[in-house]
Amino acid sequence: PQIITAPDRQAVGREAARVVEAALTAGELSTLGVATGSSPLPLYRALAASRPEGLSEIAAFALDEYVGLDPQHPESYRQVVRREVTEPLGLDPHKVRVPDGAAENPALAARMYEEQIAASGGIDLQILGIGGNGHIAFNEPGSERISLTRVVDLTPATRIDNSRFFDHPDEVPRQAITQGVATILRARRLLLVVHGPTKSGLLRRAFEGPVTPDFPASFLQSHPQVTVVADQVSAQGLS
Ligand code: F6R
Predict the structure, then answer these.
(1) Is the beta carbon of 102 within 6 A of some atom in ligand 1?
(2) Is the CB of 181 under 6 A from ligand 1?
């Protein structure tokens, strides 16, 4: 991958925003893939501040959504994306899609989401974070390289990690709809944003360890256009 390091999370956000801005300027960004969680927040803040020309025209697809959480819940990814991405970046809400985790048939909703991404022409630039267990989107350990958008069970570790967003750990949903590993790898370009002491060592495992479903981020090694923007702590150990 191309690796850009920055001193702190704000600087990581600014550097990552530059990557997005450059893609826009080059006319290579009409559909953006958006991650939720804390990693991309400084990037979204930086983009909200710079509002590069053409930004408001783009379409967006979220990576994932909890299953069985009220779509009005403030921590549903529908709400998080509206609050952190659509509104601050000035995107057209009709062009921003999130999997329907409240659907009566979530498996069908997942397949339809995969089709919607394909029908839109695919994702030009996919923003990613990495989970402590190596997940990308909610592709937990065990996820295959060929996996598509589908319903998955969240691991206990991920539910504990994400309990910080909820009043009580029991409130964290047990399942999610997530883009698959193959779905993510189909994006023309990937932008992985990583910062913070809890992420130390993960990049090394992702990019210098074996490619294995046990650590799904390792599949990123097979993508030809990955940019990693990381702080010093998380980039440590990368050669
Ligand atoms: C978010 C997502 C997750 C997060 C990952 C890291 O849509 O799909 O894979 O990117 O769990 O989360 P943070 O950034 O909160 O450490």
Answers:
(1) no
(2) no
**What is the pLDDT confidence band of residue 236, given thresholds at 50, 70 and 90?**
confident
Counting the structural domains of the chain, the total is 1
Cα separation, 144 vs 78, in Å, equals 26
The rounded distance, in Å, linking the Cα atoms of 148 and 118 is 12
Q: Which atom of ligand 1 is nearest to the CA of 139?
A: 9
Question: Which of 138, 147, 158 has most ligand 1 atoms within 8 Å of its beta carbon, as the pocket-test mutant?
Answer: 138
Range of the domain at 142: 2-235
Residue 238 — very low, low, confident or very high, per pLDDT cuts 50/70/90? confident
**CA angle at 184 for the pair 116 and 24, rounded to the nearest 5°:** 80
- Return the structure tokens found at 76: 């549903």
Residue 37 beta carbon below 6 angstroms from any ligand 1 atom: yes
Domain of 38, CATH number, reads 3.40.50.1360
- ipTM exceeding cut-off 0.95 for this assembly: yes
What positions carry a catalytic annotation? 64, 133, 135, 140
